Amino acid sequence: MRIVIAEDSGVIRAGLADLLTDRGYEVPAAVADADALRAAVAAHHPDVAVVDVRLPPTFTDEGIRAAVELRREHPGLGVLVFSQYIETWYATQLLGDSSRAGAAGVGYLLKDRVGDVDEFVEALARVAAGGTALDAEVVTQLLDRRSVGLTELTTRERDVLALMAEGRSNSAIAELLVVTERSVEKHVGNIFTKLGLPPSQDDNRRVLAVLRYLEPDRGGGKSPGAPADRRSR
After folding, report:
1. N or C end of the chain: which has fewer CB within 10 A?
2. What is the mean pLDDT of the chain?
3. Per-residue pLDDT, 173
4. Under CATH, domain 1-135 is a member of which superfamily?
């Protein structure tokens, strides 16, 4: 797996590169700004890019804007946003583009909520393999902004889908919700049916369900030029 890192903090950037290299991954570039990220992706064709939201020169939203652009230009590129901040407008664009393209491989983790190195590496591997890895707080804020489709799912189905967005397996969801795995499987089947996803033999339908559910309402929301919704934990 080839990984490109875009992180303005030299200490974090070097730490991530060393951590991933020590675990056998290839890190052909670790850069400090969005322009260098674009150049690195074009030059090295990585499997996944780890991107901070705020990069030079303004330290506002350069990183995640670049992530959205790269996903549109390189649909097979996995993107893991790794930051202290939640940019909900750009996050929904990142997820929405993935849903409409039928592609996956997206994640958004908050730095101060990642429990350990293994958790981060597992999430990164899941994104590189075409899955999703979304922090629970990111999912909550995205769902708060949704106005379409919520009434189609029951409260329990929304709970299950939110945990699916975090990358949880059916057994993990069952344990967290204190229900049987068979019950979770039933909820997942109902989710697929209500979202109009036909049967398939792989996990792509599971990922598409998450992406479609978190896709932005095209009839509203902020435009790219509007002030971004920035929140941190």
Report:
1. C
2. 82
3. 92
4. Response regulator (3.40.50.2300)
